[in-house]
């Protein structure tokens, strides 16, 4: 977590459950005002940490920076794909099939009725939820009320069907055998699918490790309660992200008394989490990790160095393992920018205490004070900005530690967080948002690799809307139903007449080859053909794409429009 001020928590960028505060993104400027120790969460007091302290000898010599040249090579640039293609790598067709099957079984077991949902209908449900996340109406029924109606949502699914599906949504059967220690077994197939994808991503040289929260006020086996937090009730997620915010690994916290690996018991809960989150990184390739004082210990940095991974992190005063540094009072007397340092006798770890607005302790295994850079600060005494000395390890820390914060910021922009008392529904919504954000970061990275112009690159909002529309329409059968209305799915209200020009379908729908049927329009006048370069008029309309296209013996824009 980037250090900002003494009152900033590790999760301060997260939204409230129902709040509508606007998120703000942090910058990359080093800024320190936190003391040597930070408040400890009641439920997360690094439980499991060994009381036995390994003795470490410290000396006042200079830190010798090792060779940490990054040694990973990556493949050639990857072609830019459609948004839905990125998303389906995280939540695949097999996951949708399993969700439909388990949801049908759950309804049959609990109510004795037949739900008869399908993978395509589950896609439409998620597509509707994604669109709701971008619009953020205060009440879910407002999307269907006459004054605020959204036609895309109304036409995708009836209101009764929507609430029934959302309430019954399941990812696994209730009778599935599971470990009693796995408190998230109800959503484990989805977690495994998303995790499998993030582990396939090319690893980044710089990795930040921090926590995120899933705000939730209902009953959940692994929920945390932390006083004086914006969201006191939460499900906690630990992530490893690259500096651009892309997640490369994660795990959900199972609750107090869990999470401490037997082989890393001496490192405590925070150290055990770090060791699990980096276990899939190639060893001895000079990866760098950054984390806050919840995780950092001298033993953790030494353990990481032994497998060729370097680290920098703020560290609590009670974990200095006998290192004697100048007191806070002495550093304040010397002024902002002053510091004191000590190095282990073996020269593998350096501890620095630096005075900014407050005093902060930082530990590092690969970078020390080196050539001092400067940090720009506001001086209350002189009422102007001043430059103060900044150690190199603080500059590296503040530059690369914010990856998880960036992911948290992006997740808070358009979240799938409607009210629910069922924790699996909330966790599913979080990981759908997670998949969209990570997909978009992949897309942006590929766009940059292919030197796509910025104006042609989709932002997160546009990307999320394209994913939603592809989920709603990619398998939507537009043929009119015959016979009596189904008892399971109430008839949907007739679509409202729209007099404006219809927008073009997203490419994932346009080229999917499913249910594109021509139909004669009953309008009194022919309409302009929507195929690029054609200026003719026609009365033939694609029922699925809802665009007019020429279809005659001499011209077939209908075929050309739907094929690349």
From TrEMBL:
Residues 1-55, 479-504 are annotated as: Disordered. Residues 83-440 form the PiggyBac transposable element-derived protein domain. Residues 21-31 have a biased composition (Low complexity). InterPro entries: PGBD (IPR029526). Pfam families: DDE_Tnp_1_7. Residues 1-12 have a biased composition (Polar residues). PANTHER family: DDE_TNP_1_7 DOMAIN-CONTAINING PROTEIN (PTHR47272), PIGGYBAC TRANSPOSABLE ELEMENT-DERIVED PROTEIN 3-LIKE (PTHR47272:SF1). This is PiggyBac transposable element-derived protein domain-containing protein. It comes from Rhipicephalus microplus.
């Amino acid at each position: 977590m980037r250090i900002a001020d003494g009152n900033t928590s590790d999760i301060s960028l997260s939204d409230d459950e129902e709040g509508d505060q606007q998120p703000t993104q942090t910058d990359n400027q080093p800024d320190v005002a936190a003391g040597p120790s930070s408040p400890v969460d009641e439920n997360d007091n690094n439980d499991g940490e060994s009381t036995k302290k390994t003795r470490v000898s410290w000396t006042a010599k200079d830190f010798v920076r090792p060779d940490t040249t990054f040694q990973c090579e990556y493949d050639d640039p990857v072609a830019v794909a459609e948004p839905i293609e990125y998303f389906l790598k995280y939540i695949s067709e097999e996951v949708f099939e399993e969700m439909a099957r388990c949801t049908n079984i759950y309804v049959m077991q609990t109510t004795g009725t037949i739900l008869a949902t399908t993978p395509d209908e589950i896609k439409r449900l998620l597509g509707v939820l994604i669109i709701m996340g971008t619009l953020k109406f205060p009440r879910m029924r407002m999307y269907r009320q006459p004054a605020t109606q959204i036609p895309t949502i109304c036409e995708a699914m009836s209101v009764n069907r929507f609430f029934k599906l959302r309430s019954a949504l399941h990812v696994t059967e209730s009778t599935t055998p599971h470990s009693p220690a796995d408190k998230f077994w109800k959503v484990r197939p989805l977690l495994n699918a998303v995790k499998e994808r993030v582990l396939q991503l090319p690893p980044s040289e710089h990795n930040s490790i921090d926590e995120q929260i899933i705000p939730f006020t209902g009953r959940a086996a692994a929920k945390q309660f932390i006083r004086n937090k914006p969201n006191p009730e939460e499900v906690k997620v630990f992530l490893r992200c690259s500096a651009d915010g892309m997640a490369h690994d994660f795990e959900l916290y199972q609750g107090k008394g869990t999470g401490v690996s037997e082989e890393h018991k001496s490192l405590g809960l925070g150290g055990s989490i770090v060791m699990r989150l980096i276990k899939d990184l190639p060893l001895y390739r000079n990866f760098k990790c950054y984390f806050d004082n919840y995780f950092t210990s001298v033993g953790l940095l030494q353990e990481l160095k032994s497998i060729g991974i370097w680290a920098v992190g703020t560290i609590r005063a009670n974990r200095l393992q006998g290192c004697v540094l100048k007191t806070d009072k002495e550093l304040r007397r010397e002024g902002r920018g002053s510091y004191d340092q000590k190095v282990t006798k073996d020269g593998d770890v350096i501890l620095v205490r630096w005075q900014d607005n407050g005093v902060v302790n930082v530990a590092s295994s690969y970078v020390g004070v080196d050539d001092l850079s400067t940090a720009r600060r506001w001086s209350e005494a002189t009422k102007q900005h001043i430059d103060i000395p900044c150690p190199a390890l603080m500059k590296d820390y503040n530059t690369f530690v914010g990856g998880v914060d960036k992911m948290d910021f992006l997740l808070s922009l358009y979240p799938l967080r409607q009210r629910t008392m069922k924790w699996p529904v909330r966790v599913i919504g979080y990981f759908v948002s997670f998949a969209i954000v990570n997909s978009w970061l992949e897309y942006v990275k590929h766009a940059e690799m292919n030197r796509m112009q910025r104006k042609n690159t989709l932002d997160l909002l546009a990307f999320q809307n394209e994913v939603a529309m592809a989920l709603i329409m990619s398998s939507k059968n537009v043929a009119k139903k015959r016979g009596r209305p189904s008892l399971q799915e109430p008839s949907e209200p007739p679509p409202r007449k729209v007099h404006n020009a219809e927008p073009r379908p997203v490419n994932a729908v346009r080229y999917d080859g499913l249910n594109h049927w021509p139909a004669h329009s009953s309008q009194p006048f022919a309409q302009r053909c929507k195929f690029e370069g054609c200026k003719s008029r026609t009365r033939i309309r694609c029922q699925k794409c809802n665009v007019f296209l020429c279809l005659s013996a001499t011209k077939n824009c209908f075929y050309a429009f739907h094929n690349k």
